Amino acid sequence: MNNKISSRHLERRAVVYLRQSTPTQVEFNRESTERQYALADRALTLGWDKSQISVLDSDLGKSGQTTTGREDFHRLMAAVG
């Protein structure tokens, strides 16, 4: 476990929010998407239990110009807000 991460941190959920702005970015920047998914694995190595890690990826390929239609963005804001 990382010495900067306390049990207080590990009691909270770890949320990984994935997003790329366009379907073309999702298709051609696969390495970026893979790195974003790898953040969930990183949370595991830092000590979070798998049941405490949420991956929100339904907004992949949706523009950030508006929050309309970005359901995972709304879930994330509800979780942290």
UniProtKB/TrEMBL annotation:
Which InterPro entries does the entry mention? Resolv_N, Resolvase-like_N_sf
Q: Which Pfam families does its entry note?
A: Resolvase (PF00239)
The stretch of residues making up the signal peptide is none
All copies of domain Resolvase/invertase-type recombinase catalytic, residue ranges: 14-80
User: Which GO MF terms are attached to this record?
Assistant: DNA binding; DNA strand exchange activity
What protein name is recorded for this chain? Resolvase/invertase-type recombinase catalytic domain-containing protein
Q: What is the lineage of its organism?
A: Bacteria, Bacillati, Cyanobacteriota, Cyanophyceae, Nostocales
